[in-house]
Amino acid sequence: MAPIESDPNVMMGKPVVAGTRITVELILERLAGGESVDQLLEAHPRLTREAIQEALSFAARVLKADVYPLGPAGAKRRTSSLTRASTSPSSSPKRTFNRSAFAITIMGERAGA
User: Fold this and answer.
1) CA distance 31 to 8
2) How many domains does the chain have?
3) Quick check: pTM over 0.70?
């Protein structure tokens, strides 16, 4: 299967299908918007069924990381304990992605560090 990778120099560090600039976010948005897998494959010739499956698996693993939307739009956003721990000076460095109402921590170094 095509792995999902993140590089700060590619798509601002968003998770992408390895070797492409196709983000997991794009795949999820298109599928959620009603586009079929076949339509997605036709629109993106470098994409494979296996890569789409890996993007879905990646999204499921991220959601299992005990990080959820922080509330309705307009609500005061709080930083999750997971993010606070990753940014405290005494903890080991981790890569943190802040996207919309999500704070996702993945192995690596703290974003922007």
Assistant:
1) 25
2) 2
3) no
